[in-house]
Amino acid sequence: MAFTLGEIARRLGGRVAGDAAILIRQVGTLEHAGPGQIAFLANSRYRGRLAATRAAAVIVGADSESLSTLPRLVCEEPYLMYARVAALLNPRAAPVPGIDPQARIAADARIAEGARVEQGASVEAGTTIGAGAWIGAGCHIGGGVAIGEHSRLHPGVVVYRGCRIGARAIVHSGAIIGADGFGFANDGGRWIKIPQLGGVTIGDDVEIGAGTTIDRGAIEDTLIEDGVKLDNQIQIGHNCQVGAHTAIAGCAGLAGSARVGRRCTIGAGSIVLGHLTICDDVHISADTVITKSIARPGTYTGLYPFAGHAAWSRNTALVRHLAKLEARVRELERRLAAGFTEPR
Amino acid sequence: MAFTLGEIARRLGGRVAGDAAILIRQVGTLEHAGPGQIAFLANSRYRGRLAATRAAAVIVGADSESLSTLPRLVCEEPYLMYARVAALLNPRAAPVPGIDPQARIAADARIAEGARVEQGASVEAGTTIGAGAWIGAGCHIGGGVAIGEHSRLHPGVVVYRGCRIGARAIVHSGAIIGADGFGFANDGGRWIKIPQLGGVTIGDDVEIGAGTTIDRGAIEDTLIEDGVKLDNQIQIGHNCQVGAHTAIAGCAGLAGSARVGRRCTIGAGSIVLGHLTICDDVHISADTVITKSIARPGTYTGLYPFAGHAAWSRNTALVRHLAKLEARVRELERRLAAGFTEPR
Amino acid sequence: MAFTLGEIARRLGGRVAGDAAILIRQVGTLEHAGPGQIAFLANSRYRGRLAATRAAAVIVGADSESLSTLPRLVCEEPYLMYARVAALLNPRAAPVPGIDPQARIAADARIAEGARVEQGASVEAGTTIGAGAWIGAGCHIGGGVAIGEHSRLHPGVVVYRGCRIGARAIVHSGAIIGADGFGFANDGGRWIKIPQLGGVTIGDDVEIGAGTTIDRGAIEDTLIEDGVKLDNQIQIGHNCQVGAHTAIAGCAGLAGSARVGRRCTIGAGSIVLGHLTICDDVHISADTVITKSIARPGTYTGLYPFAGHAAWSRNTALVRHLAKLEARVRELERRLAAGFTEPR
């Protein structure tokens, strides 16, 4: 797989400065790219590296065009162009079709043409696997599941009965789709399990990271819309809804029945508490706990600042006793209001 | 599986108002339930939905009885009744007994009658699987393990050697029971591994969520008592003890040797630090870090509030410099005490 | 496996007080150790237990030597000595060599002598498994991987193509090495996947906990140096670097391209944000989010204090409105500066 820089520009946009005939085989970093590789400058902080790079060509914004004499692909969004070039040079692998003799396929499961099911995988009754889908080694797909065309489940994914995953999904190892939601009613100190009767419905073009868990709904389905991107070790509780093209970073969690809008981003380790609604275009910073619904687009943050331990310790002692500090201010206000006539 | 409303009341309690002969096959939500389905009103916030519901019957408290003319099951705790009705209509699935020819069972492992071991599962030497237990596809059960009667391990669970799980457990996919605790001693900048010689002992009626990990003890066992409910992606460190009927929400963690009492609840993402003791009937809110032992029942919280990013930023800058603010208050106090005679 | 106390001291150091001929077979706790077991006192808080212990011998510091008449191993660091004694008495299990007939090994994979590959495991093309390595049941090892000598992968580990793990690694069940990093570029509201072309390189003597995920790099490798110890459910983003002999506690996370130095410790649930650099010998407390690079060794903390819910609630309301409190202090300062002449 190789393209001239000119051919890349014709396919993906951007303007070539310098030798358009140079052949590009792979992307690389400014620091380590060599012959046949194209690097990119997406952050002006790294401008200094442009001079020293040994890349064959570079992707730059117009403002950095003059900083290099290498063949350049000049464009408005270098990082987006890098993504496009990388995708062009590294197309998604298509599976070698076939069902491994050591896979276990229920008699009435339907495996479409061009799909691959690897050794040790199991596909239960009534499940359909779409054309060109790729079910990795040791995956377990419960009964009545639908996996869309060209979706790939890496080894060791579990999809419980009745869940649906759309087309072109990428599901990484260790992801668990459709385990029971955490639903219990308290009966005099003991917990009674509430059967989790809903499923999980996942749209098209969704990516699900390693070790991420998405619980089935209590009565109706948990819902992940098209184009959602979930990083590793995310927990999505039962009956959550995640709007299209929302991206959630690692170790974040949505508690049961939380609804997150479209085109949102949620930072690493953040939590949206249960039954809340977040509107479209909301950006939640890392390590932030959302404790009430958000109706306005914008960025929301709630992380507590770190410091050297001694400074943190002094400061946090004051935080613990903020009510006392406020009382002292109130006393000062009272004394000023009283005209300072009283003895201390 | 179907019951008349009258039959449900006879079995589970509650009083019928309206047609007791109506046949109920399933639970549903007020919004989407249809013929044959019973919905419930557990939160007065959703009263408005009662008028519009197309459910066959509804579960309500006495205070909401007059809000509907549908057949009603009137009771004190509608949510608990919903749980009971749902469990009645959706009994736990019993496994089709049998050991799959593609399961690997050690010669001296004992698989009791009525148990099921699915394809790709392995059960090592000296392990006993109780009557009616269900070991899902690809589970790995180490040697010397005991799994109690009617316990179900969903596909892909790993139980390390020597661990014990009681009766009627539900263990979801990706749960790992008995991996080594995180025990190392520092030897001049390098870590020496401390062999983890204890196991994990889990009582009866415990549910363990997808991706949850419970480490084996260093010398003695990690202990999970009867009726404990653990959500997904929880981490239980070595030698922890979790008291009976305690429920822990997703992504929470207990550091090594933490002891949590009975009937506690721990919110999502919270952490109990190592070697602490939490007494019975303690409720820990979401995203709270417990840094010292708790000896009194009650609710404890430690989450930092979120805000719009600009407001958070201003506010958090003040938090960082709270010591300065306190110094300003002290200076004001000093000046008032001094009688304001000094020049500024 | 048994040694006299004298033999232990000859091998591991320390000085024997009392009967050096007593035979020691195992370690135990002061509370529960019995005949043949050696207990240890590492924390003076537990001194009271020394008198009552039924252990055969005890490991103590010189300051506690006189507190017991049992055979004693007297040393400077009792906890470290306990680790050494436990390791001596419980040497790492060597695998029974052999490739299970139900493992799937690619024709050109190389499995060195003395290695063991268990049932249901798969090893893809071009992969090498070192001498004495132990690949547990159901592990999946992608193509072009290298696993070092005497490394052990517990059942159900996944290593994606092209990753390298050094010698003597211990990788616990559910760990996922080399899944795609979370790399996307936003194209007018939709996410374009950036192919993750790097791998993961892991040094020697690394331990990786259950459910921990280490993503492959975007262009170059994610790097885990020698002697690193990772607890359970840790997330390491793409292109992170973790310096030698650093230990990270459970549920912590490093966002993409974070670099952590050597001999650092990171507490449970803490997060280092992306593209930051932490120097050597930094200790990060539990539940701390590192939001900027750290260039000085030391301890850093950022956890928000918990309290009883009512106290937290009052206090946190003040935190939310700290800007108002500061304004009140400023107003007081202004009035004092103005000489209090104005009417209130």
CATH level 1 name of the largest domain in chain A: Mainly Beta
Distance between the termini of chain A: 85 Å
Q: What percentage of residues of chain A falls in helices of 4 or more residues?
A: 10-25%
Strand residue percentage of chain A: 25-35%
What best-fitting shape of chain A do the alpha-carbon axes yield?
Answer: flat
Largest interface: A-B, 69 and 70 residues
Strands of the widest sheet of chain A, in order across it, are 8-11-14-17-20-25-28-31-34-37-39
Radius of gyration of chain A: 27 Å
Structure description:
3 copies of one chain form a homotrimer. The first copy, chain A, folds into 3 domains: 3-89, Udp-n-acetylmuramoylalanyl-d-glutamate--2,6- Diaminopimelate Ligase, Chain: A, domain 1, CATH 3.40.1390.10; 98-300, Hexapeptide repeat proteins (UDP N-Acetylglucosamine Acyltransferase, domain 1, 3 Solenoid); 309-344. The first copy, chain A, is flat. The model of chain A has no long low-confidence stretch (mean pLDDT 96). Chain A has 5 helices and 40 strands. With 344 residues, chain A is an alpha/beta fold. An 11-stranded parallel sheet of chain A has the order 8-11-14-17-20-25-28-31-34-37-39, with no helix packed on it. The first copy, chain A, starts with a strand and ends in a 7-residue tail after the last helix. Chains A and B meet through strand 22, strand 23, strand 38, strand 39 and helix 4 of A and strand 4, helix 3, strand 40, helix 4 and helix 5 of B. Strand 40 (307-308) of chain A pairs antiparallel with strand 39 (298-301) of chain C.
